[in-house]
Automatic annotation (TrEMBL):
Record keyword Cell inner membrane present: no
Alphabetical list of InterPro entries matching this protein: PsdUridine_synth_cat_dom_sf, PsdUridine_synth_TruA, PsdUridine_synth_TruA_a/b_dom, PsdUridine_synth_TruA_C, TruA/RsuA/RluB/E/F_N
GO cellular component: cytoplasm; nucleus
Organism for this UniProt entry: Lentinula detonsa
Record lineage: Eukaryota, Fungi, Dikarya, Basidiomycota, Agaricomycotina
UniProt record similarity statement: Belongs to the tRNA pseudouridine synthase TruA family.
Occurrences of domain Pseudouridine synthase I TruA alpha/beta (ranges): 282-408
Pfam family, one: PseudoU_synth_1
GO molecular function, one term: RNA binding
Protein's UniProt keywords contain Lyase: no
Record-given protein name: Pseudouridine synthase
Keywords: Isomerase, tRNA processing
Gene Ontology biological process terms in this record: mRNA pseudouridine synthesis; tRNA pseudouridine synthesis
């Protein structure tokens, strides 16, 4: 019995093609007519397409998610956020500012990634927030904005995230008073000048609803069902230059920005060729409620008219408390306030550097705060001057500045490092167990100390051939030899400085326009054009 090949072959057209090919193989194409050659090419193309389609469909049967299958047979992998509980939390985290283009997410492309952008991507990658909903969809709020180059050790954001606790199933998102996107539009763009380390966290499953992490061997078994371990989950996917330190459950109306009682900034600097006692005198004049319009960068887009800010602490201390003031070379300005203006800390530090170098008297701080007659009290013997608009001067470098902490009431936050309540006896046994966050940051510090030792030896090697450049100017202040002359050096922090042939005192410099003039000019210029664009966009939407 003869069986037809068409009945058993999965590719009957291909079998026909093979038979025809064998039949024609003995013939020479040179004797074929044009029509026969065209027919032959069409036959070859048809067999090739048939083979490709048949192979694709065969593979599709092995992949249920293939788009080649009908929608009814396809399995959907879309993550349904609406089917999961949600809760509002606060995240406390640190980051290396020099690696990023500032904290705030920007609508326009930036040379470096932003901290918020990286954290948002980590939250979406771990399916803690819905990427389609954006920043507004999770009521994203930050405590304090830091600009490009500025670091933070205790930054805080608040937002709604996925939960595994069923009691959070009916929680509704309460929209906050502001959002990350709005902040990135309103605030001006910044105009200033790896290998991943093993963090010891292991792998992360993103598809399990109950993402309970395996506990270390030394950790006793936990009986109560925990919340998601937000700290460990996020640190697994974040770069080592951003670390989540803790999380806290918060109320639906909590705002990371407006619930903050005060913010603590630190500015680190070397005491070389600086008079620390004079700098402390100048810093002490910052305490209390003052008008800081002359110690900040004016942002006319915000139309700010009130520049009063309260400073709670302004101390200059050795970085290492165990060292005496006489032997310490590294100092830090500890500045705590209820709120801060744009670039306020860096402007304050620039003035303190001028005082420490002997170019300004400590009373210059009082004068800069004295924006109206009788607003500030001067010490006996000091000249009184009203400074109603800001003199021109350069603010200090961004690198040494750190947002050290954002402080909240204990009634608002309850920081924890894992998914268990802090009142539990088991909460001290974190799954992190020092293997990840602490070990990574400790290793980073150790590596930085190696760089310090290397740079010191580079300097020692250069000292064998070149003398120190510092000298005393004819004005009696510290200067630097440059081009055969001794120029005045004004420190700006972070190893940066400016060299001047002649120093002009702050109060004798050219003044910027008063605040009301700058605000009005912006309203009639950029502000007017912005409003026109918004009106045009609104009309187009209505149409």
């Amino acid at each position: 019995m003869r069986i037809s090949l068409h009945k058993i072959s999965p590719f009957p057209f291909l079998c026909t093609f093979c038979r025809n090919s064998r039949a024609m193989s003995s013939s020479s194409y040179e004797t074929w007519s044009k029509d026969e050659l065209i027919a032959r090419l069409q036959e070859l193309e048809g067999s090739n397409n048939y083979l490709q389609n048949s192979t694709a469909k065969s593979l599709a049967r092995k992949r249920p998610d293939s788009p080649l299958l009908a929608p009814s047979t396809r399995q959907s992998n879309k993550f349904d956020f609406a089917s999961y509980p949600r809760r509002k939390i606060a995240l406390k985290f640190c980051y290396s500012g020099w690696e990023y283009n500032g904290l705030a997410y920007q609508l326009k492309p930036t040379p470096l990634p932003t901290v918020e952008g990286v954290i948002f991507d980590a939250l979406t990658r771990t399916r803690l927030i819905d990427p389609a909903a954006g920043y507004d969809g999770c009521s994203w709020e930050k405590c304090g904005r830091t600009d490009r180059g500025v670091s933070a050790a205790g930054q805080v954001i608040s937002l709604w995230v996925r939960s595994v606790l069923e009691e959070n199933m009916n929680q509704t998102v309460a929209q906050g008073p502001t959002s990350a996107v709005e902040d990135s539009i309103e605030e001006p763009a910044i105009d200033e000048e790896s290998t991943m380390l093993d963090d010891g966290f292991g792998s992360l499953s993103l598809n399990d609803r109950d993402e309970e992490l395996p506990a270390p061997l030394s950790t006793p078994a936990r009986t109560s069902k925990p919340e998601l371990d937000y700290v460990a989950i996020l640190n697994r996917v974040l770069p080592p230059t951003i670390r989540i330190l803790a999380w806290s459950p918060v109320s639906p109306t909590f705002s990371a920005r407006f619930a903050c009682k005060c913010r603590h900034y630190k500015y680190f600097f070397s005491s070389e060729r600086l008079d620390i006692s004079k700098m402390r005198d100048a810093a002490s004049r910052l305490l209390g409620l003052h008008d800081f319009r002359n110690m900040c960068k004016l942002d006319p887009a915000k139309q700010i008219t009130i520049f009063d800010r309260r400073i709670l602490r302004a101390d200059i201390d050795p970085v290492d408390p165990s060292t005496s003031a006489a032997s310490s070379s590294m100092y830090v300005l500890n500045l705590i306030g209820t709120a801060f203006l744009y670039h306020q800390v860096r402007h304050i530090m620039a003035v303190l550097f001028l005082v420490g170098r002997g170019l300004e008297h400590p009373s210059v701080v009082t004068s800069l705060l004295n924006t109206k007659e009788g607003l500030e009290s001067f010490q006996p013997g000091e000249s009184h001057e009203v400074v109603d608009s800001k003199p021109q001067y350069q603010m200090a470098d961004a690198l040494p500045l750190m947002l050290w902490d954002c402080m909240y009431s204990d009634d608002d936050v309850d920081w924890r490092t894992d998914g268990y309540e802090s009142t539990s006896d088991q909460s001290n046994d974190s799954t992190e167990d020092g293997r990840g966050i602490y070990h990574l940051l400790h290793s980073t510090r150790s590596r930085s100390q190696i760089y310090l030792a290397l740079n010191q030896h580079f300097l020692d090697a250069a000292s064998n051939f070149f003398p120190e450049p510092w000298a005393t100017t004819k004005e009696g202040v510290v200067g630097i030899r440059f081009g055969g002359n001794v120029m005045i050096e004004t420190p700006l922090g972070g190893g940066t400085s400016r060299k001047l042939q002649q120093y002009v005192p702050l109060l004798k410099r050219k003044r910027l326009d008063p605040v009301y003039v700058v605000n009005e000019r912006w309203r009639n210029g950029k502000g007017f054009r912005r409003d026109q664009r918004r009106m045009a966009a609104g009309e187009n939407e209505d149409e």
